[in-house]
Amino acid sequence: IASYENGNYKTAAKQLQRALAMGLKLPEDQVKAHKYQAFIHCVGGRKKLCADEFKKTLDADPDFALMPAEAGHPIWGPVFRDTKRRYKPAAK
């Protein structure tokens, strides 16, 4: 998260992917990792990958909502709203 906040998106993406691959146990940690991955993809213009990460966020927590400042973001806010509107939980 610190790498992301410092604008080091490439490093942050690698670190988040590594953490996810290692198996984050807590749903809230999975949510946070996927949310930041989505932000990175959206900022990079990769809306499909952004939406895919938001779907993984919702898979970890179907009630997930962005914070108000995040939801109002002009790049990822609309992608999240569209993803949430279309979301159907994965069969378990």
Description:
The protein has helices spanning 2-5, 9-22, 27-43, 47-60, 68-71, 76-86. The protein is mainly α and 92 residues long. The termini are far apart. The model has no long low-confidence stretch (mean pLDDT 94).
The ordered string of helix (H) and strand (E) elements is: HHHHHH
Number of helices, where a helix is a run of at least 4 consecutive DSSP H or I residues:
6
User: In angstroms, what is the radius of gyration?
Assistant: 12 Å
Estimated structural class: mainly alpha
Attribute tags:
92 residues; 70% helix; mainly alpha
Brief characterization of the structure:
The protein is mainly α and 92 residues long.
Question: What is this structure's SSE topology?
Answer:
Layout: H1 2-5, H2 9-22, H3 27-43, H4 47-60, H5 68-71, H6 76-86
